[in-house]
Amino acid sequence: MTQQDTVGRILNAAETLFAEKGFTETTLRSITDRANVNLAAVNYHFGSKKSLIQAVFARFLNPFCALLDSNLDAFESSRTHESTDLHAVLGILEETLIASLKGDTNQERVSVFLQLLGLAYTESQGHMRRFLKSNYHQTYNRIVSVLQTSNPDISANALFWRIHFAVGAMIFTFSSLESLSAIAAKDLKAQNSAPDIVKMLIPFIEGGINNRIA
Amino acid sequence: MTQQDTVGRILNAAETLFAEKGFTETTLRSITDRANVNLAAVNYHFGSKKSLIQAVFARFLNPFCALLDSNLDAFESSRTHESTDLHAVLGILEETLIASLKGDTNQERVSVFLQLLGLAYTESQGHMRRFLKSNYHQTYNRIVSVLQTSNPDISANALFWRIHFAVGAMIFTFSSLESLSAIAAKDLKAQNSAPDIVKMLIPFIEGGINNRIA
DNA sequence: ATACGTTTGAAACAACTGTTTAAAACAAAG
DNA sequence: CTTTGTTTTAAACAGTTGTTTCAAACGTAT
After folding, report:
1. pLDDT tens-digit profile of A64-109?
2. Best residue of B20, B23, B87, B123 to probe chain A, by most A CBs closer than 10 Å
3. Residue range B111-138: average pLDDT?
4. What is the Cβ-side half-sphere exposure of residue A59, based on CA atoms within 13 angstroms?
5. What does the alpha-carbon distance between residue A198 and residue A174 come to, in Å, rounded to a whole number?
6. Distance from CA of B86 to the nearest CA of A (A)
7. A45 strand D contact, CB < 7 Å
8. Who contacts A45 (Cβ-Cβ below 8 Å, separation ≥6)?
9. B123 with A122: CB under 8 angstroms?
């Protein structure tokens, strides 16, 4: 059992448990039990619980943002210089999200990770918000400015908020995905997988951002 | 200092602190300190911390749902029987939300309460979801069916999810309202009050739900 | 004033939290 | 084999949590 195994197993266990129970509700003991490692391993390898939380995010977000950046590079160099289509940008986001865990054994990780993002924004004393802001703001700013050029007739302020409405629609939906899916299955007899919901989400976001009604 | 005072002061303190720090991060001692009551008062008057959390929600949700129900009654009895306009339904929701705290000393309570709703859906072991479901599902179902009749050309399943996309956009936005407002103020030099954001949110939701693009 | 049910107060309780310690086990290199 | 640095282990630590206890204070009717 090498060090790689211990660190990776802790991250896997933490990722799952955090998404299920939240950060403060998840104890280090439940994490180390699930990972089959000693309790002290977390503090030895990560320093503190707070650092472990950030490491869970970094493991997903670093490759994701790198991939998104390169996809945006390819898109910007190949498009006509005149206009940027909102539909195309959302397509890149969706595609990158799905591609970021190609080959991953756990296909539910997108859903798990969006739940974590939701927690990061609601729970906690804001230390996760700060962490996300200071580490991934370049990629975030880039998305905003791309959407800006694709929607020049919407004020910067209105667009800013519409983007966060869209983020909220996505994060909230996946935060309570299992209970919502259960309701849909019972009341509507409809089985919706995570990709199904993303496919329904995209046109909702497009309609919301594009809406020109007062 | 009567019992009413004690109970009410605990609810006020809890409401504020829960919204600021989350449910598990808020200790009973911080609540009783802020309310200027003895620590044991919470368990005496509410039985447990869990019951206190539910009482906080009930105090807001009971009058709100009652008002919303009567507003929907008035609307349904006065409209043309043919169609129900989405715009009108959203207007009622907005109006009821604002009217539900007319005369309240704290005008920020809508914002506070939407933050709490966000926490109830992300944090916790789901006991709040169950509480909300079992106590307010009639009103919720009614909204869904009203929107159903106003959008007959969208499948029930798609509409179900679009409603939750809209709920998510609202809840998430208000959950992280202060940090988002700070960013908007700094980067865009724009001052947005809570009502301003609701006014921007409504057209976003309308566009999202109405969108007929594939 | 007396007695009674309700509410408050200070203190203690037991359980659980993240973190630290120091010894043991291990792996790799000389 | 011995040495060196790293990793794991079991135990303990100090602090905080929600809850309980029981006596004191209160209000109200008799």
Report:
1. 999 999 999 998 888 766 667 888 999 999 899 888 877 777 777 8
2. B123
3. 86
4. 19
5. 10
6. 13
7. yes
8. A3, A6, A7, A10
9. yes
